[in-house]
Amino acid sequence: SQQGEEDPQALSIQEGENATMNCSYKTSINNLQWYRQNSGRGLVHLILIRSNEREKHSGRLRVTLDTSKKSSSLLITASRAADTASYFCATAYTSGSRLTFGEGTQLTVNP
Amino acid sequence: EAGVTQSPTHLIKTRGQQATLRCSPISGHTSVYWYQQALGLGLQFLLWYDEGEERNRGNFPPRFSGRQFPNYSSELNVNALELEDSALYLCASIPSHLAGPNTGELFFGEGSRLTVL
Fold this sequence. Notes:
The complex is a heterodimer of chains A (about 110) and B (about 120). With about 110 residues, chain A is mostly beta strands. Helix content of chain A is about 0%, strand content about 60%. Chain A is globular, with a radius of gyration of 13 Å. In chain A, about 35% of the residues are buried. Chain B is mainly β. In chain B, a hairpin with a 2-residue loop joins strand 5 (about 45-50) and strand 6. Chains A and B meet through strand 4, strand 5, strand 9 and strand 10 of A and strand 9 and strand 10 of B.
């Protein structure tokens, strides 16, 4: 299976702290994306990073990509209770034709 | 602009029955992806339709099938339902030129939760 892996599976932090989630994947990619899912609802796109990019920012989000290690990380700074959700990485493999999603990280931000 | 809409929101069936789930993509999006998400797990790719044609399918048995209509809406059919088919079924749409090997941002619906008793 080409499915990537995310860690940790679950993360619990206090409001104001930073949250870091990691994603590893198997083979070469065209891009890697992060999505958020609130409590069993639809997924919302957060950020896309291309294989030739190393870092990308969007508001309080920072994504890094290390193609030599086949890994990515999502950093949420100054977290809020409203950031509580599941976060998924998704990879567009060069050999594939769709996004392959990881198992997700469940983030809980305590007020 | 309306987002991706899915119906029904919830569906309860018994083993052996058939389920039909529907998806309307964002206006102008001609490509539709279907994913299955079992409780507490990640998304498993089911099917990809693009401009009316099935382009790819995931590792699911043939009793999972679907189609895409001329207006680009899509239908997912699950025959001979089994208990393990209980899941959230998510539909996502994207413009055709952003689908495929370098898939761009997917726009997801809220999903249809299928429960098989």
